[in-house]
Amino acid sequence: MESGTHPSNFASEAFLASIVDSSDDAIFSKDLDGVITSWNRGAERLFGYTAAEVIGQPVLILFPPDRVNEEPAILDRIRRGERVAHYETVRQAKSGRLIDVSLSISPIRDRDGRVIGAAKIARDITAQKAAERALREAQAQLAAHASQLEASVRERTAELQQMAGEAQAFSYSLSHDIRAPLRAISGFADILLTDFGDRIPEGVDYLQRIARAAHRMDRLLSDVLSFSKISRQELVLEPVALEPLIQDIIGEREELQPHASEITIAGPLAPVQGNSPSLTQCLANLLENAVKFVAPGVRPEVKVYTVMEDRTVRVCVQDNGIGIDPEGQARLFKIFERLHPQKRYEGTGLGLAIVLRAAERMGGTAGVTSTPGAGSTFWIELPKAADSEPTRAIRNDTIPG
Length: 401
Fold this sequence. Notes:
Elements: H1 7-22, E1 26-31, E2 36-39, H2 41-47, H3 51-54, H4 70-79, E3 84-92, E4 98-109, E5 115-124, H5 126-196, H6 204-232, E6 236-240, H7 242-252, E7 262-265, E8 272-274, H8 276-292, E9 301-308, E10 312-319, H9 326-331, H10 351-361, E11 365-370, E12 376-383, E13 391-392
């Protein structure tokens, strides 16, 4: 024991040495020339060298060939007394296996404070790096899949747009090429009935059937076109005053005139945010149904009113018609759904489907409350009228049906 050295100092140094030697991390030291001066068991387990094999050897034996240029820069920092913390790099074991490590390097000073070497702690982060690489690969694969999906969506969107264009062209064909012959058939049937009906009494019934069938087919094509147009076209939404719109509808249709039915507008009606042409179609269909579906001999009585909600307006059309049972109510707004025989109440089964689709395109919905034999109240619910500039509804390029 040196003179003046307290025994407890040796005990402390031995205790620290035992901690270093038992650490799971690789702990070793080197001098300023890069020569290894100490080596714990953790370093032996990590790199595969015994202390006898490496002490006195250059630390570069732990460096892969492509990493040897790191050592001069590290030594320069140590000579300046700097500490290197959590430096991630790669080192090489005795077997040649490459190891991902995180290094913490601290200067070693003598009693006068001069830097004489460095202490290194190397922690094996191979598993962490493998997980990071796996995550990057997964992210790259996900990005590739997302890119493929986007390309697929673009391709499918282009196909749908092409199909929508073809459907629109078909709609024009229905409008011009098919409806024109139907009107000709209906017109010639009417001429035969008017001018020659008394000469062919046995054929009058057949001519009337032809005229009615042609009229029904023309109405069906017209409703199909309306449904298709409402489903695809871009709608401009703006504040709409309901009373003038309803008055125009009543004035244009014979079955809504005072001599045929009684229609009351319980005003004032709250304005809505909608599209005037689409809203006209909705209300015209609801009013026509209201005066049509009444019991024989009953004068249609219809009341139109609005109910204000927080953000919406419900436009109601109340009638004194035959009413609808709950099962029928569930089917009403589906395309081509009819609850009554054609001979009793004419129709195409598209009127209410058009109402619902148009209401949805305007940001609303439609529905009914009814009691069999006690009338019905059909309604469309739309946003309240806004004070802002007109807005555009979302374009819908799906194929109807």
